[in-house]
Amino acid sequence: MSNTRYNIRTAGQAKIPVLGLGTWQSTGQECINVVNEALKMGYEHIDTAQAYDNEKEVGQGIKKSGVARDKFFLTTKIFPDDMKFEPEKLKAAAKRSLENLGTDYVDLLLLHWPDDRVPLSETIPALCELQKQGLTRNIGVSNFNIANIIEAKKYADVPIVVNQVEFHPFIKQHTLQSFLNNHHILLEAYSPLARGDVFDNEIIKEIAEQHNITPAQVSLAWILSDNKRIAIPKTSNPDHLQGNLDAVEVQLSADELEKIGKLARSDGRKIEHPDYSPEWDD
Asked: Is 212 domain-assigned?
């Protein structure tokens, strides 16, 4: 896979482009178009999930782009409902994703949520087996707290390379970030623009004006200023694709990074989570 367009982050054997296209709530022809445009524009990282109900459209966008499979990093996620208590259901769900995406493998396969009804002692070994079988190149988790990750690591005999969580300037994730750093797991930020709230923050707007860039680019640049983080902004607007991609090149000063870092607050989460969400770390 080429990484000439922008940087990568490494964990285990994974080499993950620092900025990807998120596809949550992107459906139908809109999804096909944005994936196609992103890949042709130079994106090297596409993120989807079974729960998004758009894997087929993502696959169609990939095919339409004509970009070779080994030129980009592809992630999908399996929801707890697909796992239940049987590892075979996890394996069947993964194979279903590959069929929908029109590929023989994904670069990263994530467990979408922890769920006390779904024992990690069964799902994590099954996930590891999928990597050994070549259906995924790497494995990871999403929406896991520290306790979840500690338990998952007990059952993993291959590296857990990513924890994909909500992350943006308004959310406190310091404790989780420190833990992930110590365990060589990358933090992958979904909702990096805080559902659009970055556009209304005066500090972020002021910094954007000073650099002649957008608040979205400020938020993404702040996230990527830490070399242990990845961002996957979602857009259905092809006009925003290039701006997000260009954020990789934005350099913020230490003072600006500090100002943005002070925006986090205890009630900063923007995403509604299911009833079985874990207790979040401060």
From this structure: no
The per-residue pLDDT for range 36-80, each reduced to its tens digit, is 999 999 999 999 999 999 999 999 999 999 999 999 999 999 987
DSSP per residue over 56-88, as a string? HHHHHHHHHHT--GGGSEEEEEE-HHHHTT-HH
Structural domain including 64 reads 8-192+226-235
3-state secondary structure of 54: coil
pTM beyond 0.90: the answer is: yes
CA geometry: angle at 210 spanning 38 and 215, to 5°? 40
SS3 16: strand
Q: Domain with 185 in it: what CATH number?
A: 3.20.20.100
Q: Name the 3-class secondary structure at 170.
A: coil
Which candidate in 52, 105, 190, 276 is catalytic? 52
105 in catalytic set? no
Domain count, the chain: 1
- Residue 91 lies inside a defined structural domain of this protein: yes
Task: Report yes or no on 278 lying in a domain.
Answer: no
